[in-house]
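so my prof wants the structure for this chain in the tokens format not the other one, which i didnt know existed until like an hour ago. anyway here's the sequence
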Amino acid sequence: MDDLKIQIKSPVKAQNAGLLISRGGAMHPTRVIDSHELIFVIQGELDMWEADQTLHIEPGQTLHLWPGRQHGSTKPMPPDLKFYWIHFEMEGINRRTHPSASETLGPPVVLPQVAQLAQPEALERLFRIFLNAQETGTLRPLSANMLTTLMLLEVAQQSCGSADTSGLNVVATWAHSYIRMNFDRPITASKVAEALGYNVDYLGRVYRQTYHCTLIEAIQRRRIDKACEYLLNSNLTISQIATKCGFNDPDYFRRIFKRHMQISPNDYRGENSRLHVMTQYQDWLVPSTFRKMW
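here's what i got, hopefully its the right format
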């Protein structure tokens, strides 16, 4: 895989973005585009290829696609797939060229082609701000470019020092999967460790080394991620959402939600009610979709 090296001096120019909700069965057509693309999967799994490599993206992961390279799907998209996408340009590196040393300031920021995010809610919030402004017609070029730069830096920052494929990472992955499947139950760090057969201190240390957060923080983040889905895609009350996400006390849920999202659940639901959502894949792929915004 090829990482994208971002020089802070290199201007990022945003094009447009969207949220794709798959109906199932559609295939991404084989194509070559002239812009970079960042894809952020929040639900389901995305299987693609670019040039001579295959790419499998899971929830909480991002994918960077290069301009000038052919890419497409390796299998039909599942009906539960949901991901954000944004197209952007970078002066001097749109086709794998890089600015000369005299044109740069300091070492580059590295954006992995596939990145696992420890705090995906931070990137999702940036996408929602961008899409809400795009949909309401209040998005200005400078703001769009700055938001896109923040998205790239968020991915790069969260990917720094990511763990390798050692045995410790396997243990952490088991814990991560257990939390994703059991977040709505009354689980704690001790219960996760007991279920997997490990000492809680050992498991907590390994998990933090891999995902850069504690087991308790991971449980809360998973619950908040699911709560965001319910807030946007259902008419459930705050109390009902709290219960479905493993919170016994709605007020405690509100406090944890605001701590993670810097906004209350009610305000989050209202702020994100006008997102630019693509539900038909062909709509996302028509040539006019890739027009420049300015």
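also thought this was worth mentioning. Confidence is low (pLDDT under 50) at residues 94-106, 161-167, 279-292.
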